[in-house]
Amino acid sequence: MATKMYAKGLFCNCIILFLLAPSLTKAQNTHLIKIELDKPIAKVQPNMWGVFFEDINFGADGGIYAELIKNRSFEFTKPLMGWSIVRAKPQEGEVLVVNRKDVNSANPRYLQIKKLTDDFELVNEGFKGIGVKKGVRYDFSVLYHQVQPGVAMVLQLIDGDKKVIGQGTFNPKESGTNWFKQSVSFVATETNPKAKFSILFQGKGKIDLDMISLFPTDTWKNRPQGLRADMVQLLADMKPGFIRFPGGCIVEGTDLANRYQWKNTIGPIEDRKMIINRWNMEFAHRPAPDYFQSFGLGFFEYFQLAEDIGSDALPILNCGMACQFNSGEVVALDELEPYVQDALDLIEFANGDVSTKWGKKRADLGHPKPFNLKMLGVGNENWGPQYMERVSIFKNAIKAKYPNIKLIYSSGTDPEGDRFNLLNNYLRNEKADFIDEHYYRSADWFLKNAGRYDNYPRNDTKIFVGEYAVHADKSLTGKDKNNWQSALASASLMTGLERNADVVQMASYAPLFAHVDAWQWAPDMIWVDNLKSYGTPDYYVQKLFSTNKGTDVVSATLDNKNIIGQNGLYASSVLDNTKKELIIKITNNAEQSQNIDFYLEGKINLKQKGSIEELSHSNLNQQNSFENPLAVSPQKSVVNLKGKSLKVELNPYSFNVIKIRFK
Ligand code: AHR
């Protein structure tokens, strides 16, 4: 009986499956999409698609800033955090942390080594280990001050089994009361992602040490004490239109004392006053007690990075308000002047002639040519009347001196609600250049908001979507990871940003980088460990938009309507009048493939062969990983036109970029 019932059930299921099967997998109807080539509806700004950089998730220290020694200047709250002293018989007073804050408030602490008898070792654990590459040269440097010469230092990279995988010797050459900087280099003999760095002290004597540093030499552009090349390369490959920096909440700080102050981030690294990273203690479930900001990646380096990869610099400055989720401190209005002055000085630092005070500082740092700063953010995620009061003071001062600098203002943390409405109305009345909107929302929200800007006012106030990311359905991911679902929904919304490029003139996904062993916030666009990095599906979506931005938006419609979800389709199209090509972006969010017949109306003669780059996966939960970094990545093939008609079958759950050159 049971067998019979089972057999009957199976039979019924088969019929149901048979009936359903074609609609689950195969395209049925053909959707006719009209692209009007002769009717440009908006200009695409050359800097439309950019990146948002913040020192979160060990993005800078322990990430793109290639320094390998954690707490090199002993300025962490616990001065020896990251260091351990290894020796047989410890003697009191042989290793001391000395504080000279009255003579050096930027970098008060140093280490005093008094070598009396037995040799001992000081070991640095690095930022979650030290990534070491075989054959790469490593540059060790230190500031020292030798009052009783006689101490020699053996430098060793050691693996988990205490095997030496790189070694050098440091013999201090100078003695006396001055501080000297001296370097020595050695080559690693093995690759290891989690090495440690040991300094073995030999001999007898007394030496003071500060800024104990170790850098790989295979940095971006081989710059000494520079940035991690693999991470910068991933950014460069995106050809981002701008880099927004340095945050994010770290601009605000938990309190005003720990806000980001750009002037403390330029010049000799030993003079850059380190502070606690705001992400150090933000999330109780992801504590990062060893997260501080050394500012080795400071404002000069940010401008240089932007220039290197052809992006506009977009600095965001503190507006006299600390994070409103933390202390919520505001500076008294009659004490706001230094904050405003910082903004004015930053513009002079970036653009001023070398005869100006801050232009000269830039020149002295090695960049006499201006950086051509065009825009500046006033505050990060600030809100409320207290923000409005401060914004107005900033605006008056900056516009009076630099009327051409575009100013970007916060609309708070959310893209709707009372706080948003208050600021949105106020800023529009004030004829703000840009309003910065942020959204971290579900895939569903993104799909529903693909038409968000279709009815936005068309006036001088533009939108900068300064932070956005789909926080995917956790029942799919199990964790806060981005996957193909989140990237596909982002791509769908981004067609709406592109269609409205006259209103939405810039956009950047957030956050950018995360270290697998040290993140606080997820999802993120790019994941790194101490040696490697890979792009998530969102990385490839961002890259496809950014490298195919075009110059002019042209209308793409289905039944004369914008394509914002009909049959799970979302689309936009642009012409690139420089490269002479038509670019169509279309997502298929349906679980079945769909036939599209594009009718390419207009006088422009198109070649009859084009290309399609497709990102797709049948599993919405698919993620990229170190093991499989390209699981979701673009696949390219050819498409053929017939006159003005282009027929394509879009795969289920796919994002497609179709390119056809003009004849
Ligand atoms: O991107 C992560 C954080 O999200 C940013 O620091 C902040 O601006 C937003 O709340």
Layout of strands and helices, then pairs:
Elements: H1 2-25, E1 30-43, E2 49-52, E3 83-86, E4 95-99, E5 109-115, E6 120-124, E7 130-132, E8 137-148, E9 151-158, E10 164-170, E11 180-187, E12 192-203, E13 205-216, H2 229-238, E14 242-245, H3 249-252, E15 275-276, E16 292-293, H4 299-308, E17 312-317, H5 337-351, H6 357-364, E18 375-378, H7 385-401, E19 406-410, H8 418-429, E20 434-441, H9 443-448, E21 462-470, H10 474-477, H11 484-499, E22 504-509, E23 513-515, E24 526-528, E25 533-535, H12 537-546, E26 552-558, E27 561-562, E28 569-576, E29 581-588, E30 594-601, E31 606-616, E32 635-642, E33 645-650, E34 654-662
Parallel strand pairs: 1-30, 2-14, 2-22, 14-17, 17-18, 18-19, 19-20, 20-21, 21-22, 23-24
Antiparallel strand pairs: 1-26, 3-6, 4-5, 5-13, 6-12, 7-12, 8-11, 8-13, 9-10, 9-12, 15-16, 24-25, 26-27, 26-28, 28-29, 29-34, 30-33, 31-32, 31-34, 32-33
Helix pairs in contact: 5-6, 11-12
Key structural traits:
663 residues; alpha/beta; Immunoglobulin-like; Jelly Rolls; 9-stranded mixed barrel; 8-stranded parallel beta barrel; globular; disordered N terminus; binds alpha-L-arabinofuranose
Structure description:
- Helix 5 (337-351) packs across helix 6 (357-364) and helix 11 (484-499) runs parallel beside helix 12 (537-546).
- Mean pLDDT is 94; it is low at 1-24.
- Helix 7 (385-401) links the parallel strand 18 and strand 19.
- Among the domains are: 14-45 and 552-662, Sandwich (Immunoglobulin-like), CATH 2.60.40.1180; 83-216, Sandwich (Jelly Rolls), CATH 2.60.120.260.
- The chain is built from twelve helices and 34 strands.
- It is α/β, with parallel strands linked by helices.
- The chain is 21% helix and 34% strand.
- 46% of the residues are buried.
- Strands 1-26-28-29-34-31-32-33-30 form a nine-stranded mixed beta barrel. Strands 2-14-17-18-19-20-21-22 form an eight-stranded parallel barrel, surrounded by five helices. Strands 3, 6, 7, 9, 10 and 12 form a six-stranded antiparallel β-sheet that branches.
- It starts with a helix and ends with a strand.
- The structure holds alpha-L-arabinofuranose (AHR).
- Alpha-L-arabinofuranose (AHR) binds at residues 54, 56, 247-249, 380-381, 413, 467, 510-511, 521.
